[in-house]
């Protein structure tokens, strides 16, 4: 508007005229032309003046310098007045040719006016700065002040502009122009009294009479005189130019809105938008709120949503009413997000309180939020409004939210920070702490689990959770081998818990195992039988308890009773039936019912599966041999050693085969069988017995030298005297070891090994020696000894030695050795579960060693290992994917991350899910990234960090779509619910919200 108004001003110029009194006389014709030219110039007849002046210049004498200045000056001004493109050049040329001319000040002034007419205000300013203001006449000074004032005005230098405008007298023809700008400056500075006075005076102005009413209307609007606006606005709209009309529609709309007549803003805003007005946040708010107040909630929703933006009072009010629109249509999710935006206490306090309460209530009703937002929000409400009538309801909802939360660590941190929890919150904390303990227990952190369970029981609000905490403390104590404490905890539980609890029967079951482990068979039997009375359903627990009762009778040599319970265990079915059949067979054998024993063992062997298949097969062959059914025994055991190469009974089976073949008279086969024993474990007691059998065969053939040659070739001691010394020396060392004198025993055992490097008790000595080193804290020697034992070949200590070696090398950070031990252990373990544990250790140790190539090889090894278990497979594949990603194989890494992301309950799965989402986002597939994020959230991961990272990306997707409302709601959900507050996630969310502002 500033420029447009200025262009409407007339450009008046006042020029000095001079009479020729100096210089050479002009030619008569030239003199006449000059006089006519000057007269025409003074009367503003620029074209005619220019003609006469050019004729005068043709007849002027070259040395008549003053006359030339007059003519050239007037010609330059004529060029400017006529709009000649040469005007600027003519003026500049004049000032160069006549630097001392009396016309130069006027010419600079005129040049400034020329620049103003072209809107080249920077050039005009520089030229006006060089003008001698005092040398100008009154009219020129007024023109100068008006132009310089305007230049400062458009530069927003209002104080300087006023200093020029104030110099223009009310009597001046330019006063109205100056008054307009002074009034406008007062208006822009909210000095409405001065501005109103100025614009009212301008109502009679020819130049501004049509503009002043609009400013006066705006002033009345800004001063809150809305009735005046609506009463006078319609008339102005009818008379207004299109651009003014658009602004007036906007003012009218808000005035009707302020007056509470909500049906009328809509037509005005429609006209405003139709005539080119921009529907910004304020306009959308007026439109949306007017629709809301006229009960047009569905229509109001979109306008109110567009009014939300920066964190300000407008967003608060719009989102608050938007929430009600969503509630009316049953969309609690969007209503909750809207209340979240309205809950800022920095603005309207009443709205903030109501919004915060409803935000927390809806978040609870919708499941508590992705990051326990319900807990955070309701806690904030209770703390912020302790005296509110709704605080009790908020506390009740808060307690319920804690109960429903599965992120126990986060919930515990929040409730622990509560300054003065009441009974309801303390009860919630007791339950949360209990479940936190269970969660830690399930993750293998028994120490943390015990700590949380003790804390839960000490809170003591709920007897039920006191009792349950005692039960699980008993479980932890049992796992640590502290059976006395476990029994005390189970007893404490049983005194407090009702019989209907699931754990009640299990407490007797677990107590039975404690007594069983302490070899207190009568008490174990009593506990297991109480469990059986309470647990009639046929399942694995009942079958196992029946077996344990049978074992207690077996241990007490009450074999008939043992048979009864083993029989019941067989009938119960399940995994325990295999053990029960085998034990039943063994018991029948003890009772001399050998045919029944053989029949049961044959049934097990024919089944071809089960954890006791190798036990039963070996026992069947051994039984046949004991019954002197050597051929049957040979048949069973030959098949056994071929089909069960990893069985711990394999060496013993060869010993039995040696005996059977010897009794069948097949001495060569007997020798071959005994030889397999010697070669499999040359430094073992089994080898000693086998060597005795070999010696008897050679001696019976009269070939003693053959025996000695065999002994020498096999690298074993064949001298009976030496064998006797070997046995006595080891026996002495073992007595010291069994007496618990570890340091002395270590010396004796070391001496034995040095004296008998091929002794028959080498394996025993190495195992005992390693145990002595462990007990005396000499870990390096313990590791060295265990390694020697393991490297000596498979024996009865190999599995135990590998377990200890793997664990010790891990503790000592000798990760490559630990990985090697775990990998060997996996091959030797007999059950799938044990193999899985060993493979998991193998994975952890290999990753800890940090060699990328070895990690990749390990991951492939684990992937091909059938019994590796999910944990080992998952951790190894994740490590592989990370390496592939670092090496630039994004496709290979993403393929693995995709597979792992199917289970976001695991840390690897959750992190992988984020990487898959991130890749979809980076590649521009935002629809897939959005879909995957919601799927990630719906799966209920406990790993909030990676879910929050995914939600940051989800917010960024909404920003790209232009949906700032949803983007803000997404970021806000992180700020309101995510914990902890110091890992950067909340800061990133806040930064994104700030950018939206």
CATH architecture of the domain at 219-417: Alpha Horseshoe
Secondary structure category: mainly alpha
Give the tally of β-strands: 0
The CATH topology of the domain at 219-417 turns out to be Serine Threonine Protein Phosphatase 5, Tetratricopeptide repeat
Please state the CA-atom Rg, rounded to the nearest Å.
51 Å
Largest sheet: none
- The amount of helix comes to over 70%
Approximately what portion of the residues adopt beta-strand conformation?
under 5%
Termini, distance in Å? Answer: 29 Å
H/I helix tally: 54
> What's the CATH class label of the domain at 219-417?
Mainly Alpha
Query: Overall mean pLDDT score?
Result: 90
Give the full name of the CATH homologous superfamily of the domain at 219-417.
Tetratricopeptide repeat domain
- Uncertain runs: 1-25
Q: Which of globular, elongated, flat, extended, rod-shaped describes the shape?
A: elongated
TPR repeats: 467-500, 505-538, 543-576, 651-684
Protein name: Tetratricopeptide repeat protein
Pfam family, one: TPR_6
Keywords: Repeat, Signal, TPR repeat
